[in-house]
Amino acid sequence: MASVVSSAIPRGQVDLVDFVDWSGVECLNQTTSHPLANALKQGYRDDDGLHLESDADQQLLIYVPFAQVIKLHSAVITGPEEEGPNTVKLFANKEHMGFSNVNDYPPSDSLNISLDNLKGMPVTLKYVKFQNVRSLTIFIEDNQADGDVTKVQKIALFGTTVDTTNMKDLKKIEEH
Amino acid sequence: MVLEATMICIDNSEWMRNGDYSPSRYQAQADAINLICGAKTQSNPENTVGVLTMAGKGVRVLVTPTSDLGKILACMHGLEIGGEMNLTAGIQVAQLALKHRQNKKQKQRIIVFAGSPIKYDKKTLEAIGRKLKKNSVALDVVDFGESDDGKPEKLEALVAAVNNNDNSHIVHVPPGPSALSDVLISTPIFTGDGEGGSGFAAAAAAAAAGGMSGFDFGVDPNIDPELALALRISMEEERARQEAAAKKAAEESTKQEKVGEQASSSQDAAMTEAVNTSAVVADDKKQNLTDDEAALLEQALAMSMDGAKSTSVDIADADMSDATAEDPELAYALQMSVQETARDSSSQSEMSKVLEDQSFVSSILNSLPGVDPNDPSLKDFLASLQGQSETQQKQKEDESEKGGDK
């Protein structure tokens, strides 16, 4: 999917992959050979050969906690045309959801992924709903072709941190 | 040492009354469950286990996942057998119970004991299996009891649907001589995917494999090597002494088996005291030791009654210092026996008096920690002592070697 658009990070936003708390990341219904890291981790997600794949059926439930509180602005979700995700629901600050209670709460945002999105165009989220996010739950309900297997190439999240410290700019001070 | 929350589904349906697994299917199942709970809680102290019943009036959770082994074992008491097993409802309730576990970091596992026929079809079971896999719940199935057409295949299909990277297993246990728990110990259900729990399983296997009787002296050399060694050495020493005594007795021709008896019982006392001071206080172990001592005592007495006993006095001398330190009464007895051999027939009467004093002898025996004065073999021995001392007095002048009236 290395084509067109994408990579144009909205102004002022940063890629939140640095702020993900990897110890708490969970994904339900993934195949062991195609786990979530393939779609989320830097390096893996840009590798066309690696993708996230669903197992028993086409749904996926991804739980991403963050190391600090962030505001979520937009997201990039790419995947193949047929098996890429179609309906995606996002829940902010809901821990340990399961497939059984995923429909009990109204989502913070509900996305319909278009083919352009699948090619890399960012999806703008309802920014007001994501002002104070500690963890994000991504529920992929079905895919484009309504098949049994959903494949996701890349999931990238963009936003800002609540405190304005940009951790990358923080240099270690040798002498005071 | 996987951090795991487990729900165990018990089959308490009518089919569990059958006795093809001893003592009954239900009891074999209960034993296996006890072992599993122990293994799980031991392999990782943060593991939790819960139990529910699938038959009876309906699916009922007896205890929600907890790490308190006592609570788990207690809830298994007084379960009623009856009704029909509802497999799908049982699995679903187990899944729900696991979902609400306190520590979300624990992996979820369900262990199902399926002893009665399964009325659901393969498709339903596979759907349930997929649902479990989707929610990353592992499943172990123990197929025992009834084996109607299709039951093994249905359960295999169920486990295959759940299986994700070899985390789910199924074990078929046909009825046979070995207990259900013994068969399960060697399966991955116990050993937990190849790691952890194996220490407990090995110990359980050792205990199960005939308990104490598998080892000499009722002590497992793996658990307590020093005790096993001490017992073995003292046993060998005793045998050597007895053989030497027998040889010398056969060579020489005189004397009092009383002295010999006293001496050899002092040898036994020395040995048994040494044994008992080092013995761990376990009830059945103690019983074993008592039986061993009684056997040894009888053995020693038999040997000493065969021949003359001035020889065994030498051995008694060697032991005397040991015995003296441990038991003043014994020392007194030994002193007397030594004095007697120095003298002649007069000593016989004194010795007989000593032994006649039933209470004295009993008190000696009572002071020996491992000896049970109510032991029938001991009582026979005491009775025979009485008989002997009387005969000795009659045959005072004869210096007979015999006297072994029993």
Automatic annotation (TrEMBL), chain A:
One CC-aspect GO term: cytoplasm
Domain of life: Eukaryota
UniProt domain PITH: residue ranges: 5-176
Family listed: Belongs to the PITHD1 family.
PANTHER family in UniProt: AD039 HT014 THIOREDOXIN FAMILY TRP26 (PTHR12175), OS03G0795500 PROTEIN (PTHR12175:SF5)
Name by which UniProt lists this protein: PITH domain-containing protein
Species annotation: Ensete ventricosum (Abyssinian banana)
From TrEMBL, chain B:
Positions of region (Disordered): 242-276, 335-354, 365-406
Composition-biased stretches (Basic and acidic residues): 242-260, 393-406
Biological processes per GO annotation: proteasome-mediated ubiquitin-dependent protein catabolic process
Top-level lineage group: Eukaryota
InterPro entries noted in UniProt: PSMD4 (IPR027040), PSMD4_RAZUL-like (IPR049590), UIM_dom (IPR003903), VWF_A (IPR002035), vWFA_dom_sf (IPR036465)
A GO term for molecular function: polyubiquitin modification-dependent protein binding
Bias type Polar residues, positions: 262-276, 336-351
Pfam family, any one: VWA_2
Gene Ontology cellular-component annotations: cytosol; nucleus; proteasome regulatory particle, base subcomplex
Alphabetically ordered keywords of this record: Proteasome, Repeat
VWFA domain mapped to chain residues: 5-189
Family, per entry: Belongs to the proteasome subunit S5A family.
Name this polypeptide is given: 26S proteasome non-ATPase regulatory subunit 4 homolog
Species: Ensete ventricosum (Abyssinian banana)
